[in-house]
Amino acid sequence: MKYFLGADLGATKTHTLIVDETGTAVGFGESGPGNHETVDYDGMFNAMHIGMERALQVAGLTKDDIAGAGFGVAGFDWSSEYEITAQTIERLELKSPYRFVNDSVPGLVAGSEEGWGVVVVSGTGSNCRGWDRAHEQEGRVTGHGVLMGEGAGGTELMHRCMQRGGYSWTQRGPKTKLADALIKYTNARDIEDLLRGYTTDEYQVGADAARLVFRVAEQGDPVARDLIRWAGVELGEMANAVIRQLDFQSLEFDVVMTGSMFEGGPALVEPMRETIHSFAPKARLIRLNVPPVIGAVVLGMEAAGLDVTKAIRARLKESIEAVR
Q: Which domains does the chain have, with CATH numbers?
C-alpha cells in the first residue's frame, strides 16, 4: 500500500493529512501557522514538521512510507520565492516527489468536481486563482488587496465601509446606520470620535467587523447594501480576470467559493454570479464544503504519478472526518 501526504499551511494553523492509495484517510495532524511572512521560513518548517510527525504517529507510519506529498503554502505568492520555499520543504527529508502551490489552490482542487477551474477566496483578505484541466496553466490576481486595487475580503470591505462613514460625516454621501453600529463596536463617543480614532489607529476596524455590514444591510440600510453589492461585483471581476487569462469564458467549469465572507449568502454571491455570468455564462458557482487539505493530498498523489479518479476523490471526502 502506498501513502500520500498533504499539508495546508495557513496564516493561523496548518493541517496535515495522510491517506492511502484508495483515498482513505489514515492520519491527521494540526500545528501552528505556516505563512513565512509572519513566522519566517524556520516557522514554516516547524509547522510542517510538527504537523507531519503528528499525522505519521496517528497513521502508524514513518516518513519513508510517503510516496508523494503536496503543499498549499500561504505567503507563496511570487516565482522569486520558489527556491527558498522548496528548500524549506526539503528540510523535511521526505524521499518522495512533491509539489507546492499557493494555499488558495488546494481549495480549488478539493472543491471542484474535476480538480480544475477557478477559486475565489474571501475571508480576512481575498484572492483568486485558476488552473486548467491539466494543472499546467495557472491564472491569478496578485492577492494583495487594497494595495493593488483588489477586493473584497473583510479587510477591504471595512476599508471601504469606513470611507463611506467619512462621506456621511462630511455630507459627501448619504447618512447610514453603519455609523451607529461602528460607534457601538469601537465604543467611540460619536461619529467624529470614531473617525478620529480610526485615522489615528486608536480604534481598530478590521475584518472581524464585516459581519456588522451584513447585519445592517439586512435591516435595509442602502449604504450597507451597496457595500456588499460592491464586494460581490469586485470578487466577480477578480474571477473574470483569471477566466480571461485561462480563456475559460466559453467553457463549463467550477468557480469554488471559500472563506467566511460567503457566509453572508445571496447578498454577496448573487452580484458575483451576475458579474461572472456576464462574461462566462457556463460557470458553476459552488461553495467549498470540505477541508482544503484534501486538495493538497491530491497534489501529492499527482506528484507521484497516481491517477486521481472520482472514486478516490469521493473516498477522501468520506473518510477525513474519521481522523480529524
A: 3-103+292-322 (3.30.420.40), 107-290 (3.30.420.40)
